[in-house]
Automatic annotation (TrEMBL):
The record marks H179, R241 as: Transition state stabilizer. The lineage of its organism: Bacteria, Pseudomonadati, Bacteroidota, Flavobacteriia, Flavobacteriales. GO terms for biological process: acetate metabolic process; acetyl-CoA biosynthetic process. The gene is ackA. This is Acetate kinase. Gene3D superfamilies: 3.30.420.40. Substrate binds at R90. Pathway: Metabolic intermediate biosynthesis; acetyl-CoA biosynthesis; acetyl-CoA from acetate: step 1/2. One of its GO terms (cellular component) is cytoplasm.
Length: 398
């Protein structure tokens, strides 16, 4: 079965064509700068790679361009667009309505629309991707996979905020969580690596570190706590997002310094985090500058690691133990520096990093702890597209 996985953003479409149940990627790529000058389409199939500047005024044009490449007689991988039987869509927010992956219906689309206020930067574009795919691949089944669904197992003591109950009961104000497809995928990979015969009751902490960052406590395969909340802004320090902050700072900026609420929101989401601390949002630049002696960059790295340490400690307490700490996503998989900062001075927990193993990059699940360490430190490459394909396949074949 051919499943086209789509991650539709405000000005981009990330895609993969995955053959299931073989779990093999036939083609992948990205359409970027949709609606802007200099739009680009990237396409990869096997050893063939192509990047081309194209005119892409809207998402429908972008998806049609992708289809043209998939059908190309020279480097395409399908002979007819109807060879795509399923289109799996990443949808950021499912609110409290969706606790699992679903086939798209008119009712599902209306419910996705109803939670626009909870994810105004993401859900409208996710829904647009669904509507466009329905037109382009009119014979395929459309499936929605929700980032928030994995966290529906969190207990109320973890997801409810200590504010008047009416906001939960009347307005659904609570912690929902994000990066769910990533946390689900890497936790399952980690549990399989640990071997359930040895760990029949698993306690895993997954640390997703990219431009957006989050951390999850996962007990027996189910999320019990998570660092992101109503929106994807709190918790760990991120590329441009502040993460946890005393709410008094917000009112100080508004009441004392004269910023508007919109300006403060923009500051916290787009001008803070590692960018606000250093002037750089890319961790590679920050690590390079730190190595050259930039004190702002050095401090930012240690602030970043310190925040992760605190969450690890609290989640170990929440689960009454832990079997493995799992690092994933762009920074988690590739930054030996951040992993070292996080794991240093944590030996009282049995967290002992092997410097040699930590310095090696790889594309498979690997342990980077010392052999004698009582706690596993794993690096697990995430694969959100494959997870979406697996969940979509399960829905249409059950």
């Amino acid at each position: 079965m051919n499943i086209l996985v789509i991650n539709s953003g405000s000005s981009s479409i990330k895609y993969q064509l995955i053959k299931m149940p073989e779990e093999t990627v036939a083609a992948s790529g990205l359409v970027e700068r949709i609606g802007l000058d200099g739009a680009l389409i990237h396409y990869k199939s096997g050893d063939f790679k192509l990047t081309k500047e194209v005119d892409v005024p809207d998402h429908e044009t972008g998806l049609l361009k992708i289809t043209t490449y998939l059908l190309d007689k020279e480097f395409g991988v399908i002979s007819d667009k109807d060879n795509i039987q399923v289109v799996g869509h990443r949808v950021v927010h499912g609110g409290k309505t969706f606790s699992e992956t679903v086939e798209v219906t008119e009712e599902v689309k209306e419910k996705i629309k109803s939670v626009f206020p909870l994810a105004p930067l993401h859900n409208p574009h996710n829904l647009k991707g669904i509507e466009v795919a329905e037109k382009v691949f009119d014979k395929a089944k459309q499936v929605a996979v929700f980032d928030t669904a994995f966290f529906q197992t969190m207990p109320q003591k973890a997801y409810q905020y200590a504010i008047p109950k009416k906001f939960l009961e009347e307005n659904d104000v609570r912690a929902y969580g994000f990066h769910g497809t990533s946390h689900k995928y890497v936790s399952e990979q980690a549990i399989a690596y640990l071997d359930r015969h040895e760990f029949p009751s698993s306690k895993i902490i997954t640390v997703h570190l990219g431009n957006g960052c989050s951390i999850t406590a996962i007990k027996d395969g189910k999320a019990i706590d998570h660092s992101l909340g109503l929106g994807p802004a709190n918790g760990l320090i991120m590329g441009t997002r502040a993460g946890d902050i005393d709410q008094s700072v917000i009112f100080f900026l508004i009441d004392k310094l004269g910023y508007t609420a919109e300006q403060v929101n923009n500051i916290l989401l787009k001008e803070s985090g590692m960018y606000g601390l250093t002037g750089y949002s890319d961790m590679r630049d920050i690590e390079e500058k730190s190595a050259e002696g930039d004190e702002d960059c050095r401090l930012a790295l240690y602030m970043n690691g310190y925040r992760i340490k605190k969450y690890i400690g609290s989640y170990i307490a929440a689960m009454n133990g832990v079997d493995a700490i799992v690092f994933t996503a762009g920074i988690g998989e590739n930054s030996s520096v951040i992993r070292k900062i996080v794991c240093d001075d944590m030996d009282f927990l049995g967290l002992q990093l092997d410097p040699r193993k930590n310095a090696v990059r790889g594309k498979t699940v690997r342990a980077v702890n010392l052999p004698e360490a009582s706690l596993k430190i794993l690096v697990v490459p995430t694969n959100e597209e494959l997870e979406i394909a697996k969940q979509s396949f399960a829905v249409v074949t059950k």
